[in-house]
Amino acid sequence: MRPLRRTDRFWPPLALIVTLVVAGACFAGGTGEDDPSVPGDQGTPAASGSAGADGTMTVDEFERDIEGAVRVAEEYWTGRFEASGERFQPIRRIVTYQRDGEVDCAGQGLPRNNAVYCSAGDFIAYDVNWAVAAFRQVGDAFLYYLLGHEYAHGVQVRLGIRYDFTIQQELQADCMAGAYLGDSVRDRALTIEDGDLDELGAGLRAVADEPGQPWFAEGAHGTAQQRTDAFFAGYQRSLDACDLG
Fold it and tell me: What are residue 115's phi and psi, to 5 degrees?
């Protein structure tokens, strides 16, 4: 995928996932009113500015892609809410961390190698060293999918959507992330290249639950087939596929 060039803003490049890295599970935060304990807003990766494994992925590119992914998600959901006659409130902040427990969500420290949406304080947090490594290994589309999935959890909170089981919440977020990417292609904000969808499917299978994970377990995200089906249902049929009510 590559973005359509706009004259009024920066649209960073978007490749697609070819992943051997397993994405961290989402962490469902509480609903308290107090701000979380966080080290600050979106930060700089603890890595050098040199090229990555493929010779192209630099920290500067990472930072631009994170900013771009957040901006695309905000604009996408703002437009969808406005089309329904509603006002969208963007997620308050994106924060980074490097150590276990450095960021706190509803009294629980977040683990390394993870990315989460925390409803207590309304923020997305991610382990920046893990994200940079994944970015360099799998490409910048990883960041668009990652931010799209976590942003979807913030939208679920704004819509008052609640489920009895984690897997329902996670598969819906996959569907919403698919809709956000698919609609961006249809709206000509992004263009798709040959092989991109096959590569994205491979990435979704890689971040599925381990075989034998009970579907009703806390933190379950879904099998490879379930995650792939949910994402591509949203990608192909937009939010109508995502059962938003």
Answer: -145, 135
Between CA 120 and CA 241 the distance in angstroms is: 28
Tell me the backbone φ, ψ of residue 108, rounded to 5 degrees: -120, 125
Contacts of 240 (CB under 8 A, 6+ apart): none
CA 230 – CA 178 distance, rounded (Å): 8
Q: Are 142 and 68 in contact (CB under 8 A)?
A: no
Provide the angle, in degrees to the nearest 10, between the axes of the packed helices 166-186 and 224-237: 40
Of 126, 169, 119, 171, which is closest to residue 146 (Cα–Cα)?
126
The model's pLDDT over 97-132, given as tens digits with 9 standing for 90+, comes to 999 999 999 999 999 988 999 999 999 999 999 888
For every residue of 179-241, DSSP letters joined together read HHHHHHHHTTSEE--TTHHHHHHHHHHHTSPPTT--TTSTT----HHHHHHHHHHHHHHGGGG
- Residue 100 region by backbone torsions, left for phi larger than 0, else alpha for psi between -120 and 50, else beta: beta
**What's the rounded Cα separation, in Å, for the pair 42 and 125?**
9
